[in-house]
Each structure stands twice: as C-alpha cells, then as structure tokens.
Specification:
6-stranded mixed sheet, mRNA binding, RNA-binding
Length: 136
Amino acid sequence: MDFLIPFTTSGSLVDCVDKKLLVVLRDGRKLHGVLRSYDQFANLVLEDTVERVYHGSAYGQTRHGVFLIRGENVVLLGEVDLDLEDDVPLQQVNLEQLLPFYHQENEERKVREAHKAKVLYDQKGFSKEGGEGDGY
C-alpha cells in the first residue's frame, strides 16, 4: 500500500522537467520559463526565463534567459498549459507603462506586511523575521 502515499519530495518535480512553468517567488516576482534542472533542495534552473509584471488585464515582461532560483524562495510553481496560454485575456504592453503601478503595489504590500508583523509580535508573541528567536 506504500504506492498510495503521495511522493512529496523535490523528486516529484521530475515530471516538470522540460516543461514551461510559472514560478512565484517570496518577493512577489513571477517568472515564466522552461525547467531544465533541479536538486534535492528544490533549487531550480529555468531556461528562456521572462519576468512578468501584471496590472489589471495587462502585463509587461523582461527577458532573463537562464535563471537559477534558490528553492527556499519558491512560493508556488505550476505547469503552464501551452494549449490554453493564448486564450488568457491579457494584453501585453510595454513594461515601462506598468512599473509605476508595480512599485506602488510593492510599497503597499510592504506596509501591510510590516503592520501584520507588528501585530503578531505585539499581540501574539511571534518573533520578527530575521530577529531574535527566528533562528533554527
């Protein structure tokens, strides 16, 4: 019955090699690229990588080529369905048009996260990230 237990280690990425993935990083960046390699820590090597910035129904992108991602920075990854990718109702625009919105959203997110961290520290006793008591 061991074959019914899901395989949840980085080895489960083997089916994703040579497929186009969307990877969301801890800092909010969204990368699209072809997974070429990975290791036991879920460090990823993406090829033909583009970073996309979204706002509303528009997106802008910048090319990065080969990209190495440290596994601890990955929040989410998923395979892009190439048949459905063109049906997504998004319009590509020049990245420079979206950057002011992107920076504003990032600043608002930082303020929200700082407020949340303060509440967790003051009311619940959680340590601040990177602060005393955060080591393992």
